Amino acid sequence: MTREEFADARAELEQLFRQRQTGASGLGTPNYTEIRARTGDLQATLNRLVRQLSSAEFSVANKFIQSLGYEARFVAGRETLAAN
Fold this sequence. Notes:
Helix content: 55-70%
Shape: elongated
Oligomer: single chain
Number of helices: 3
Radius of gyration: 13 Å
Structural class: mainly alpha
Number of domains: 1
Distance between the termini: 23 Å
């Protein structure tokens, strides 16, 4: 996810995940909603690049984006199955 096309959404996600450490996080919070919106942006960008990437690159990037959205469901700092 280091391509220039992902830079803006990546920077926003990094900030949102930092905010999770001290603010409300998990399902139903504004933080969750924002992370899901930014992962949607990443997914849309990835889909536009599908012909420029190998199937392995696309698959790894797709799984990574999905994992970010999944992680956002949980309250930061709590042990979850996602962390194990």
